[in-house]
Amino acid sequence: MRVIAGTARRLLLKTPVGKNTRPTSDIVKETLFNMINDKLYKARFLDLFAGSGAIGIEALSRGADMAVFVENDLEACRCISYNLEHTRLDMYATILKMDVFSAVRLLSGRETESAFDIIFMDPPYNKELESKCLRLLADSRLVDNDTIIIVEADSHMKHVLFEDCWNIIKVKEYKNNKHIFLNRRQICQ
Questions:
Q1: CDD domains annotated for this entry (predicted)?
Q2: pTM across the whole model
């Protein structure tokens, strides 16, 4: 796995050992970033279920101002830290070693915290963690009407999970997974 473009282009990234993380392939990552590249410059990026940190690091490499990485697994946090130092992007990053739900509550409670421009989440498949996380984000100060949320999900996941507070902007399907692009509705139902 490597950084595809930007200041850290071509640098290799470490991934955690074991089956607890599922790195996004370079082809899928490249497609994703081609779709959001115009929104990255000076962006505030939140990487939930961050794994190796590859997605948030790619965002930083391509011009995001800052990224927060949320990951509960200690080995994965060590990889994120190593990858950030290796790419020399660590000064633009914060790593929160905690579960995503605690992190969202913590970040939402900070008076100084403002909305993120892009929130990316890649939770374990088929556990409906994205739905729980989106419910928590719906009323948080981490999201405003311009925030784009990208959910990486199993290709068989139903979109109906997102219909109450979220507009589906677009869905990009791949062989085994998909990216669902969302923004917040003006009024949640």
A1: AdoMet_MTases
A2: 0.91
